[in-house]
Amino acid sequence: MQTLIKTHKMNRTYHGNHFFVLSKGKNAGRPMDKPCPNCFVVISKCPREKQLLYWLCFGLWQCGYFQPHLCGSVIPFLRLPELKSIIRYTRAKVDLRLDEYKKAVETLNKLLTIQQNISHQLQLINQAKKGLMWKLLR
Questions:
Q1: 86 has pLDDT over 90
Q2: Containing H/E element for 43?
Q3: Residues 6+ apart with CB under 8 A from 71
Q4: How far apart are CA 116 and CA 13, in angstroms?
Q5: What's the half-sphere exposure (Cβ side, CA atoms, 13 Å) at 16?
Q6: 0.85 exceeded by the pTM?
């Protein structure tokens, strides 16, 4: 079985190696672990392939690669043929530099962990500021 990319239908479940790609809105192209009403599903043959494609989509979304391919004037959306074409094209480029790609994904994972830690710290700082003001205004 090759990688399959299709429109997700709500209430449908998938088994094995899959992830979802947002199809509508300003974040169209963003990969997700859980489905939403407006998304595509990418079903791959093995976990390694799933991870490779997930991070490929994540990188494309992060750098705004999908933006020029969005259609629609009110709510922008990404068409399935464009998504398939973009993934096919960039996958071929990545295959030529697989070692560099793997290192980039490792670095992305580390950066995301750091970002999550900083976000958590910012939440704690905000809670501390609120607590301080509540204590002061009592």
A1: yes
A2: strand 39-43
A3: 77, 78, 79
A4: 29
A5: 13
A6: no
